[in-house]
């Protein structure tokens, strides 16, 4: 079991990323589950269902054992971006426009409709990482860690070019920052 202190830290990472994205964070419920029914392996660290953020306890333990605080913060920023994506999609449906380009919103809608979950094997991990919503969430988390937290970026190799491209767009949009090629 993970300590309340670790849970508070993980939840703080999520809330901080939500603040950066200007999305509400107080109505989320955090549920910590070990590998078993929801999570097949530690490769799937967290996922949302409605307003519940399910977090893989075994992944947290592994990150702590490996002294990998970075991973905890990166994944919470990644999950916050998924909530931002849902917020933007809902806003687009409600008002017919939103703060992102329609082409990006439509790619997110399509991606969520045929979402490929990471089941812990190499093929599903690659399929998952190459979806528009995952490219965007990884790009945001990488930019967030580099710019806001002054830490390096981790980018999935299977979609590195797409993530870096989107990371540059996000970095400029949120922080007015530019990355050199």
Would you summarize the structure shown here?
The chain has helices at residues 4-20, 57-65, 69-95, 102-113, 122-129, 132-148, 160-175; strands at 29-33, 46-49, 52-56. It has 181 residues and is mainly alpha-helical.
Please provide a written account of the structure.
It is a single chain. With 181 residues, this protein is mainly alpha-helical. 59% of the residues lie in helices and 8% in strands. It has 7 helices and 3 strands. It has helices at 4-20, 57-65, 69-95, 102-113, 122-129, 132-148, 160-175; strands at 29-33, 46-49, 52-56. A 3-stranded mixed sheet has the order 1-3-2. A hairpin with a 2-residue loop joins β2 (46-49) and β3. α3 (69-95) crosses α6 (132-148). The longest helix has 27 residues, at 69-95. The radius of gyration is 16 Å and the shape is globular.
Structural class by SSE content: mainly alpha
Reported for the largest beta sheet, the result is: 3 strands, mixed
The fraction of residues assigned to DSSP E strands is 5-15%
Shape: globular
Mean pLDDT: 95
Question: Residue ranges: pLDDT <50 for 5 or more in a row?
Answer: none
**How many strands appear in the DSSP assignment?**
3
How large, in whole angstroms, is the Cα Rg? 16 Å
Write out key terms for the chains shown.
single chain, 181 residues, mainly alpha, three-stranded mixed sheet, globular
